[in-house]
Amino acid sequence: MVQNLLNVQYNSLDGRYTSRQEFMADIALIYDNSKSFNGPEHSVTVQAHYVQDFTRALMEEFDMTLAVLEENIQKNAFDDDYDEPESTGRRRGSEGYQPESMVIQTT
Fold first, then answer.
1. pLDDT the model gives residue 2
2. Would the pLDDT of 98 be above 90?
3. What is the total count of domains within the chain?
4. I need a surface site. Which of 30, 45, 75, 86 has the fewest CB within 10 A?
């Protein structure tokens, strides 16, 4: 599966991650894919490894806070009484977020 940081950002903004493990699996996939396709010494692989280590360290540092957030996310995701709001055509958590602004034009 192809994975990159932009997809991780979209998934985060869409609320697709219900656990830290799901999020970290995608971060690990970025590193694994780069290592497989670019080689372990390639600059992209080195940066992907840094991102993976940095993200893991942040998760450890904020473990207690993330555990509470994760529990609340899982409760809401599986709550039978929870009614998903009508779609407004916008992504959850994306007020003012425009994916086009993240595209870098090269010439």
1. 76
2. no
3. 1
4. 86
| Structural Rg of the chain based on CA atoms | 16
pLDDT attached to residue 75 = 83
Residue 50 lies in a domain: yes
Dihedral sign of CA atoms 98, 100, 106, 107 in order: negative
Backbone angles phi, psi at 43, to 5 degrees: -60, -35
Residue 92 lies in a domain: no
Residue-range definition of the domain harbouring residue 23: 5-78
SS3 40: coil
pTM as predicted: 0.68
CA 16 to CA 22: how far, in whole Å? 9
- Tell whether 11 is covered by a domain: yes
Q: Which residues contact 88 (CB under 8 A, 6 or more apart)?
A: none
- Would you state the pLDDT for residue 83? 56
